[in-house]
Design brief:
This protein is 52% helix and 20% strand. It has 14 helices and 15 strands. By secondary structure, the protein is of the alpha/beta class. Strands 7, 8, 9, 10, 11, 12, 13, 14 and 15 form a 9-stranded mixed sheet that branches. A two-stranded parallel ribbon has the order 1-2.
Amino acid sequence: MALLDAWSLRQEGKPPGLDPDLFRGRIVVIGPTALGLGETRATPFGASAPGLSKQLAVLENLLSGRFITEAPFWVSLLFGLALAVLSAVLLMTVRSPALELAWLLLVIVPVVFGVMGVSLALGRVLLLAALPVAAGLLSCLGAMASNHLFANREAAFIRQAFSRYMEPRLIEQMIEENRLPRLDGEERELTAFFSDIRGFSSFSETFQHNPRELVRVLNQYLTRVSSALLKEGGCLDKYIGDAVVCLFGAPVDHSDHAVRACRGALAAQAEVARLREEFRAKGMPDVYTRIGLNSARLFVGNFGSEQLFDYTAMGDGMNLASRLEGANKSYGSLIMIGPRTYELARDHIEVRELDRVRVAGKAEAVTVYELLALKGELPAKKRWTVQRYHEALALYREQRFAEAAGVLKAQLSEDPEDGPTAALLARCQKYQQHPPAHFDGVADLEK
């Protein structure tokens, strides 16, 4: 059935109202359309139009069957809830300020009106826009508020947990850069630091009648050593009597953790040297510190019981660092580093290759080094001592013990305080008198 108005009749060249057959099978809407003659009606597009036009639009929809129907309320409600849940889960999981802003401005409103447009175009179904938009916005605001509250609580916990182990500036750097450590544990490469006072038992006997003074002196020593380590970004793990355990590369993920650990070890030795002068001036016994460094992939996090736990690391790399600290006693060295530490920091440090050693329980031998100085800071005399030591070490590995002993003995007369030279000389002289049945140039750290 067709629609017919006066304008279309004029177009056909037929005067309106003359031929009754002209209106048969048609619907005629009569009304004025000229400006100023008929009543006008507001439309969804904001402009006023003759009421006749609205009637024509209604008739067109009735005749064509193209209706716009409103979706049931529960559909709009379900859409709003789904959008709210998705927003909350995503924003509270990712917790990114950039995502919060983008999701709020670029996703919520476009998604709602995009879904509305598709439903109108394909099914001519109208969804309520206000409900999903309000649900999405409220969910976003709630998630953002929760994120910031959680972040503040987490930052406060991190400050409290690490305030005694790290410099405050590093803690704030972690929080500002949102690089908070996984306290439930994670595997990463880092450098472990172990130090101990040589002959602490004899040192403490001096204060056997005054234990309070021993505590005061020990606290002074630990404070000076710890300060040197903290300045290089180390995280104090624990104190075991006079021993200090420190981590470099966790919880702050420093890519140069090995270099920092070497600088920290040298700075700690420098502090101990100054402390020795102060002790000697007061008539107190001498104090020496042995240090072991090793870099490895370790599992780091909070370990302990429900009542007490600490942020520390576990793994074979920690055990090797501890053994290297103790091995200094056999080699007469002060700072011994493992092969991975040397590999990572070799361009920044001066070292002496001490030996190839085998750790108990491990078949593979590793090369260990003595850390002597930062790059370019090794005195010429010590550099010559190191060169002669390397010559003797090569002879020793070829089982030319007498020749190696001759080189070491000559050098020891020039540098009598060099511990590794004296230690290797004693081993060469021992093998001269009692040649080993099986010799592979590898020393056992347990012997």
